[in-house]
Design a protein that fits this description.
The complex is a heterodimer of chains A (266) and B (364). With 266 residues, chain A is an alpha/beta fold. Chain A has a domain of 182 residues: Rossmann fold. Chain A is 31% helix and 26% strand. Chain A contains eight helices and twelve strands. In chain A, the strands form three sheets. Chain A has a six-stranded mixed sheet, with helices on both faces. In chain A, strands 2-1-4-5 form a four-stranded antiparallel sheet, covered by helices on one side. In chain A, strands 11-12 form a two-stranded antiparallel sheet. In chain A, helix 4 runs antiparallel to helix 5 and helix 5 runs parallel beside helix 6. The termini of chain A are far apart. Chain B has one domain: ABC transporter involved in vitamin B12 uptake, BtuC. Chain B is 73% helix and 1% strand. Chain B has a two-stranded antiparallel sheet with strand order 1-2. In chain B, strand 1 and strand 2 form a beta hairpin. The longest helix of chain B has 40 residues. The chains are: A alpha/beta (266), B mainly alpha (364). Chains A and B meet through helix 2, strand 6 and helix 3 of A and helix 10 and helix 11 of B.
């Protein structure tokens, strides 16, 4: 179960979280199969990040059932959990004095005493090659741009060698080129390595383009679950996001329309 | 230059770098081992009176029994040992607190530990429990043994009180940020300092002098027993920082990264906080609150060996220990026969050095 290389699924049943007496998540249930690509979408404050942090183990004290790879998450030690899920936070720390390769090596922490040194080295160099950061392995993280730093964070999650990667708004702060690179990277990690991806975003076009399944949240509840195509039906989008969308065809066969929020003032 | 020439030059340069860089690290490593050793070996001979090896050892009978030899074995050697262990402990505690609080300014005296110890010492001095100038001068004769321990014990109790207050606060305000905890330490520190000043202001001249010189930090030792009092602190701090080296690295990236990379954060923070505070309390009880060393040793060491705690911890111990031994030797030599509080020397030399360190250009 704690061997490297396998994908993990999660099963969430009736998950509720209160912070400071306020319900942030109420009765959230959904499932992600091993090796699948799942997007959680919704407005700011819908509870997406809290949900991700529960799975990651950053927030504890929830009610309900949260199974990671078939095991109840709250009963897992931090190291055991880290071998099952990796987490890429929304904003990464910028002022750390470590070099990129130092940081990627540290991600092997949950495997210390389990994996061999050769395995560690292979995981580190593999992750750096896949993300294309080998060229700045010896640079300090504090000297990197936002886009480069995001790749380093993703490389660290890959090197951690867990069967599932959680990402919180991975493209929000990036320019177009880095957005595309990040999206391609997520797709490759999912397809080539079979890693389950659970990605939180408010960018509906991003979610429609990549995922096999979308969980739409609103006010701490799951509003809608299904494949991307279903989201276009019956006014779901405006209910989830609070605005109406114009649809434009991308002109390419088999692609979903591009959704642009309708402005109220022109 | 032709492109072929450039390629060859570049290749040579790269080759040179790969050959020399590891040696550069070797030079650093040798320096970090031999410089402290040299300082430790040299310091006991220097002082008000220079002692020559002939006063202590002789070819025929091994040890010589002379006034100089007694000073050497009873005063100088224990003092160097205490100074080294204390300096290393302050440095390591500063290093760990800087990682735990993710704040480059965190150091033991900022967390109220030193102020607590000073308050304890103040109480003992005020109650007349302290023997001699710093509980030391009467200690070699038999009646003073318990009395000589009174000030260190009271200082230890004071430090533990400060720790108890801060950790109770931390438990009550669960989820309080590290910055809040640090500020709580500052508040406790200032509260205790005000109480110390009450003692100083209302005390007699002798008490006030004793108290003042104690709070400035000074190393004063009689006999090997006192010299070894900081050895356990150094052992605890060094063992903890080496055991948790990778965890300390990860914690620098924030609680979220550390937790999701598998660090049992709460348990580790509690253990490190307790171990470090205990060690600082033991050292402060014996040497007074020596400020600045906990700040300066880790920052200097990061410049030398980089941020990874596996290498950083031994380097901090070497730098902190050596710095305090050097400053203490200066303290008992410069103004001879008076013994300057070593805290004054540390701050006087440390402040400009630290400024230089902050503003000097970085290599990378």
């Amino acid at each position: 179960m704690s061997r490297e290389g396998g994908a993990n699924g999660i099963k969430i049943t009736g998950l509720s979280v209160e912070l400071g007496g306020r319900a942030i998540l109420s009765n959230v249930s959904f499932e992600a199969a091993p090796g699948s690509f799942l997007y959680v979408i919704g407005r700011n404050g819908a509870g997406k990040s809290t949900l991700l942090k529960c799975v990651a183990g950053v927030i504890g004290g929830y009610k309900g059932e949260l199974l990671i790879g078939g095991r109840e998450a709250s009963s897992l030690a931090a190291r055991d959990r880290a071998r099952l899920v990796a987490y890429v936070p929304q904003s990464s720390p910028g002022d750390v004095p470590y070099t990129v390769s130092d940081f990627i090596e540290m991600s092997r922490y949950p495997w210390s005493g389990i994996a061999s040194e050769a395995d560690d080295r292979r995981a580190v160099s593999g992750a750096m090659e896949l993300t294309g950061i080998t060229a700045f392995a010896d640079r300090r993280i504090s000297s990197l741009s936002g886009g480069e730093r995001q790749k380093v964070m993703i490389a660290s999650a890959i090197a951690q060698g867990s069967g599932m990667i959680l990402m919180d708004e991975p493209t929000t702060y990036l320019d177009y080129a880095h957005q595309v690179e990040t999206i391609d990277l997520m797709a490759r990690v999912n397809r080539e390595r079979g890693v389950t991806m659970l990605v939180v975003t408010h960018d509906v076009n991003l979610a429609m383009g990549l995922s096999g399944k979308i969980v739409a949240m609103s006010g701490g509840r799951v509003e809608w679950t299904g494949p991307p195509s279903g989201l276009l039906e019956a006014g779901w989008l405006s209910r989830i996001f609070g605005v109406s969308f114009d649809r434009y065809s991308s002109g390419r066969e088999g692609e979903f329309p591009v959704l642009v929020p309708e402005r109220r003032v022109r | 230059m032709s492109s072929g020439g450039r390629i060859i030059t570049e290749a040579l340069l790269r080759r040179f770098c790969t050959l020399v860089m590891p040696r550069l690290n070797l030079i650093k490593a040798l320096l970090l081992i031999f410089l402290p050793l040299a300082v430790i070996l040299a310091a006991p001979w220097v002082g008000v009176r220079l002692i020559s090896p002939g006063d202590v050892f002789s070819w025929g009978s091994g040890f010589v029994d002379s006034a100089e030899a007694r000073i050497f074995w009873q005063l100088r050697i224990p003092r160097v040992i205490l100074a080294w262990c204390a300096g290393a402990t302050f440095g390591l505690c500063g290093m760990v607190f800087q990682a735990l609080f993710r704040n480059p300014l965190a150091e033991p005296s900022l967390l109220g530990v030193s102020a607590g110890a000073a308050l304890g010492a103040a109480v003992s001095i005020r109650l007349g429990l302290a023997a001699g100038a710093l509980g030391a001068s009467a200690a070699s004769s038999s009646p003073g043994f318990l009395v000589s321990l009174a000030t260190p014990l009271c200082a230890f109790a004071g430090a533990m009180l400060a720790i108890a207050i801060i950790s109770t606060f931390a438990r009550m305000a669960r989820g309080a940020s590290d910055a809040t905890l640090l500020l709580a330490g500052v508040a406790v520190s200032s509260l205790f300092s005000s109480l110390i000043m009450v003692f100083q202001y209302t005390g007699g001249a002798v008490e006030t002098y004793k108290l003042l010189s104690w709070t400035m930090g000074g190393i004063s030792v009689v006999g090997m027993g006192e010299g070894l009092r900081a050895v356990p602190s150094l052992f605890i701090t060094l063992a903890l920082s080496l055991c948790f080296a990778t965890e300390l690295d990860l914690i620098t990236f924030g609680d979220e990264i550390a937790t999701t990379r598998g660090v049992e954060l709460e348990r580790m923070k509690r253990l490190l906080f307790a171990g470090m505070s205990l060690s600082v309390a033991m050292v402060v009880a014996n040497c007074g609150p020596i400020a600045f060393l906990g700040l300066i040793a880790p920052h200097v060491s990061r410049r030398i060996v980089g941020p990874r705690h596996r290498l950083l911890a031994p380097c901090v111990a070497a730098v902190g220990g050596t710095a305090l031994v050097v400053c203490d030797t200066a303290a008992r030599t410069l103004w001879a026969p008076a013994d300057l509080p070593v805290g004054i020397i540390i701050s006087f030399l440390g402040a400009p050095f630290f400024m230089w360190l902050l503003f000097a250009p970085r290599h990378r």
